[in-house]
């Protein structure tokens, strides 16, 4: 006879049923990594448009973050399919579900730290390269050390919270665990502090750059989108404080979804400030299909502006863009019969110096 709990009969089949909560976690674990991957592909395309290597340090860190993010998503799928996440704990006492759930929970803590840690390091490294002169280079380096410290704090909290370590997933092991609410709350608090510092780091310097005010506001908003990650961290912190560990398999689903969305948004924020050329190219392509302009006409893109970070990618400290407009038929080295009559030639060049 199958035992009955207040939530229904005890589950005994090899794979526990997928509840609506579990299905929501699986959907999030698929959608967010896919979106982050597509966003990262746009990052690579932008580098190609600019003729810049897509293997800068901040790029490599971003790629690692996406890789770990996929690992996190797959781990959460296993948590639902094999560990019964989304079902109530009393229903999962008839098999190895709790051990599988605990193993995936342990792995999730490590993968979550690696995903966000690499993302934070990517953003900070980009900010260092773009905005900081040699005399102040210690500021982002200090923040990188703090980010690395948070990543290690998160990983070690998951590893050392229970002694022996097997107690994390083996309910029959003998030992003791620390105060999970306090320790995991400390992780979220330090996470919030590092996010605030990362967002505040470039704002003052960004506002002082010489660029159109509308574009300046847009870029500030891109960095400010990091406030969303802080909002998700605050919600996650509240969820940890109010988490009922007596029904962990059910209540942990909401925290997992929040962590996935937080990590995905962080990866989007790490890439968003670099995507202007790709966006301009796409908009230009769409407009050209509907444009009544003469064949061969190409409107100059605003992304050709002399932006500080574009020069810094080339390791230059000073630069200016020159635009020359001339009759195409009378340009030096060009015969009049090479282009149709009436066309003009626009030559744009960027002069770069290191002084």
Automatic annotation (TrEMBL):
<keyword id="KW-0812">Transmembrane</keyword>
<feature type="region of interest" description="Disordered">
    <location>
        <begin position="328"/>
        <end position="355"/>
    </location>
</feature>
<dbReference type="GO" id="GO:0016020">
    <property type="term" value="C:membrane"/>
</dbReference>
<feature type="transmembrane region" description="Helical">
    <location>
        <begin position="60"/>
        <end position="86"/>
    </location>
</feature>
<comment type="similarity">
    <text>Belongs to the SAT4 family.</text>
</comment>
<feature type="transmembrane region" description="Helical">
    <location>
        <begin position="138"/>
        <end position="161"/>
    </location>
</feature>
<keyword id="KW-1133">Transmembrane helix</keyword>
<feature type="domain" description="Rhodopsin">
    <location>
        <begin position="42"/>
        <end position="280"/>
    </location>
</feature>
<dbReference type="InterPro" id="IPR052337">
    <property type="entry name" value="SAT4-like"/>
</dbReference>
<dbReference type="InterPro" id="IPR049326">
    <property type="entry name" value="Rhodopsin_dom_fungi"/>
</dbReference>
<keyword id="KW-0472">Membrane</keyword>
<protein>
    <submittedName>
        <fullName>Integral membrane protein</fullName>
    </submittedName>
</protein>
<feature type="compositionally biased region" description="Polar residues">
    <location>
        <begin position="344"/>
        <end position="355"/>
    </location>
</feature>
<feature type="transmembrane region" description="Helical">
    <location>
        <begin position="181"/>
        <end position="203"/>
    </location>
</feature>
<feature type="transmembrane region" description="Helical">
    <location>
        <begin position="250"/>
        <end position="275"/>
    </location>
</feature>
<feature type="transmembrane region" description="Helical">
    <location>
        <begin position="106"/>
        <end position="126"/>
    </location>
</feature>
<feature type="transmembrane region" description="Helical">
    <location>
        <begin position="215"/>
        <end position="238"/>
    </location>
</feature>
<dbReference type="Pfam" id="PF20684">
    <property type="entry name" value="Fung_rhodopsin"/>
</dbReference>
<feature type="transmembrane region" description="Helical">
    <location>
        <begin position="20"/>
        <end position="39"/>
    </location>
</feature>
């Amino acid at each position: 006879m199958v035992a009955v709990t207040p939530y229904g009969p005890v589950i005994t089949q090899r794979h526990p049923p997928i509840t609506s909560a579990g299905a929501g976690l699986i959907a999030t674990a698929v959608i967010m990594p896919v979106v982050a991957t597509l966003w990262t592909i746009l990052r690579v395309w932008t580098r190609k448009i600019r003729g810049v290597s897509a293997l800068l340090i901040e790029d490599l860190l971003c790629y690692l973050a996406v890789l770990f993010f996929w690992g996190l998503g797959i781990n959460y799928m296993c948590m639902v399919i094999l560990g019964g996440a989304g079902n109530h704990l009393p229903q999962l006492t008839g098999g190895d579900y709790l051990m599988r759930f605990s193993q995936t929970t342990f792995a999730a803590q490590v993968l979550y730290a690696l995903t966000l840690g690499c993302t934070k390091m990517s953003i900070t490294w980009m900010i260092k390269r773009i905005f900081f002169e040699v005399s102040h280079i210690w500021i982002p380096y200090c923040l990188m050390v703090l980010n690395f410290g948070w990543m290690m704090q998160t990983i070690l909290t998951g590893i050392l919270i229970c002694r022996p370590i097997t107690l994390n997933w083996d309910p029959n092991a003998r030992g003791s665990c620390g105060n999970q609410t306090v320790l995991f709350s400390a992780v979220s608090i330090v996470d919030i502090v590092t996010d605030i510092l990362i967002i505040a780091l470039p704002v003052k310097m960004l506002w002082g750059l010489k660029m159109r005010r509308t574009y300046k506001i847009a870029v500030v908003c891109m960095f400010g989108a990091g406030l969303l990650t802080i909002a998700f961290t605050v919600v996650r912190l509240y969820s940890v404080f109010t988490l009922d560990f007596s029904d962990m398999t059910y209540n942990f689903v909401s925290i997992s979804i929040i962590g996935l969305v937080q990590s995905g948004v962080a990866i989007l924020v790490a890439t968003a400030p670099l995507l202007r050329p790709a966006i301009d190219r796409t908009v230009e392509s769409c407009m050209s299909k509907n444009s009544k302009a003469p064949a061969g006409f190409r409107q100059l893109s605003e992304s050709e502006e002399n932006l500080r970070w574009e020069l810094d990618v080339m390791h230059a400290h000073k630069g200016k863009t020159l635009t020359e407009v001339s009759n195409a038929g009378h340009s030096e080295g060009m015969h009049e019969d090479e282009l149709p009559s009436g066309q003009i030639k626009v030559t744009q060049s960027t002069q770069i110096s290191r002084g």
